[in-house]
Amino acid sequence: MYSIVSTGIVCGIQSLLIQVEADVCDGMPTFEMVGALSPEVREAKERVRAAIRNSSICLAPKKVTINLYPADIRKAGTGFDLPIALAVLAAYGRIPQICLEGILFAGEISLNGEILPTTGILPMALAAKEAGKEAVCIPRANLGEAQIVKGIKILPADNLRQAIAQVEQFQKDSQKAEIAEPVEYMGRDAGIPDCDFAHIHGQKTLKRACEVAAAGRHNLLMLGMPGSGKTMAAKAVSGILPPLAEEEALELAKIYSVCGMFGQRESGRFWTRPFRSPHHTISAAGLAGGGTCPKPGEISLAHKGVLFLDELTEFQKPVLEILRQPLEERAIQLVRSSGTYSYPADVMLIAAMNPCNCGYFPDRNKCTCSLSMIQRHLNKISRPLLDRMDLCVEVRRLPLWELIQKSPEESSSAIRSRVEAAQNIQRKRLAQEGIRYNSQIPVSAMAACCPMEPQAERLLQESFGRLELTARGYYRIIRVARTIADLSQEPLISRSHVMEALIYRGIDRKMWGLL
User: Domain for residue 180, yes or no?
Assistant: First the structure.
């Protein structure tokens, strides 16, 4: 007999539907599987046979052939176990084929028949809905992911026998099946930030730069002595970013689902923007994504949030150079022999570094580094990468009197209100361009989106040659000035706005010896 069951495979953060065919006939008892299968998929036949036997389901010894198509797509992962098992049982006549129609199945099966969680359930459920499927049958441990998708019924199961009962009951009467109702991303609580700007004393310039960077989602580089508050400020930035929009939260949830890290976005944290801080020993694959079965890296895990690189000069230079293309295109494409994988990478990059090996330059009373040592230290950051940093700010170490002062500092909630107001202005202005933030303004839309006063234009033109700006740096200054004007709720970019934006570009020229 013949049967067919639907399942899915993840490509990037999207899912493609895969059909599992099973044919059972008389002949030499064998279990063959075809269809461009990875080793873990081929091993499914042993798990499936043991799971069916240990679920007290007796099958006659026959020739079993399994085909997964399209055959030109390589299948990887353990989520094919459940659909293969049900396809075999349907081909043996133990389950009516009609019970399996209109349902997408995914899940790993243990030898005792227990259904174990698998990755990529969320994009599979979305693909099933788009394909017109009525339900998805998944491991109960993945229920939270599937519940996000509205308009499709969820059939969670703990073991193989329960999955059979679920689909049979669903076919009889879908209203009586154990179907989970959709939820709305575990509520809209934006969460409480781990760090608050109210806990950072002084550092007015640093706080202002963080506010500007957050308002326009610009990249920020902080240079300063050890212990000056760079890391604490970076963590506080996530607390002044507005919550994710619904489409942003869904896209981010798909990334974490593919990585098997969906649990990190549960418990009311769906609307908070991610903050990722990888260690400087991270590999290129860990940052950009990759592996035998390609998965998103830290850049994609920070999508729509903050990617913080502390001790920037300690990262391997080839790893840092990977950032150049994603910062421009806001996406990563991995080309492998098994296919091309695309991952979103719209991140706000915040980096922190010491100005020299000992960390005290330009204070020559404390700095013990020679000029050549300082130059080698700074040259670990390439000019093309430095050119992609919209704001560069020098962070000084606070004196004791400023550190222990009792006067209250402005809280993150107060700063967030200004950031949200500025971003609302941006969304209205940029709606026709299909973007949301000033950092994304294309060159073609500069004239319409960034009108400037004549004095501001003259200042910018004069600074182009004096600061030896590149074309990229020139337009990035305009975008930052546009954000500064939005924070002041002014329609035109004035000379003062351009002046502040130029100051943020001047620190890197000072430290790298270009002024």
Answer: no
Contacts of 312 (CB under 8 A, 6+ apart): 221, 320, 351, 352, 353, 380, 381
> Rounded CA gap, 148 and 340, in Å?
27
Whether 132 and 240 map to the same domain: the answer is no
Q: What is the pLDDT of residue 515?
A: 32
Same domain (yes/no): 348, 405: yes
Residue-level pLDDT at 279: 94
- What is the C-alpha separation between 244 and 431, in angstroms, rounded? 17
- For the record, the structure tokens of 339 come out as 């296919």
Cα gap 139→133, rounded to integer Å? 18
Token pair belonging to 293: 């079965």
Question: pTM score, two decimals?
Answer: 0.87
Q: Kindly state whether residues 427 and 467 are assigned to the same domain.
A: yes
Q: What is the pLDDT of residues 26-35, one digit of tens each?
A: 988 999 999 8
pLDDT value, residue 398: 77
Name the percent of the chain lying above pLDDT 90: 60
Q: What is the DSSP string of 396-418?
A: PPPPHHHHT--SPPPPHHHHHHH
Q: Could you report the per-residue pLDDT of 378-424, keeping only the tens digit for each?
A: 888 988 899 899 999 988 877 777 767 777 888 999 999 999 999 99
What is the domain count for the chain? 2
Phi, then psi, of 335 in degrees rounded to 5: -105, 115
Instruction: Tell whether 190 is covered by a domain.
Output: no
Same domain, 214 and 155: no
Note whether 293 and 336 are same-domain residues. Answer: yes
497, part of any domain: yes
Two structure tokens written together for 323: 């950032």
What is the pLDDT of the chain when averaged over all its residues?
88
Question: Taking the CA of residue 97 as centre, how many other CA atoms within 13 Å lie in the half-sphere pointing to its CB?
Answer: 11
Determine the structural domain holding residue 453 and report its residue range. 197-511
- Domain-located, residue 178: no
Residues 6+ apart with CB under 8 A from 485: 491, 492, 493, 494, 497
**Is the dihedral angle over the CA atoms 354, 357, 361, 366 positive or is it negative?**
positive
343/296 Cα distance (integer angstroms): 6
The token pair that represents 378 in the structure block = 């700074």
What is the distance in angstroms between the CA of the first residue and the CA of the last residue of the chain?
Answer: 79
Nearest alpha-carbon partner for 145 in 179, 183, 107, 176: 183
| 391 and 291 part of one domain | yes
pLDDT: is 139 or 463 the higher one? Answer: 139
CA 141 to chain CA mean position, Å: 22
Beta-strand ranges (E) seen in 319-376 are 331-336, 339-344, 348-353
- What pLDDT score was predicted for residue 111? 95
Number of residues that this document lists for the chain: 515
Alpha-carbon distance of 447 to 67, in angstroms, equals 57
Nearby residues of 267 by Cβ (< 8 Å), 6 or more positions away: 186
Same domain, 151 and 202: no
Q: What is the CATH number for 473?
A: 3.40.50.300
The sign one gets for the Cα dihedral 91, 96, 102, 107 is negative
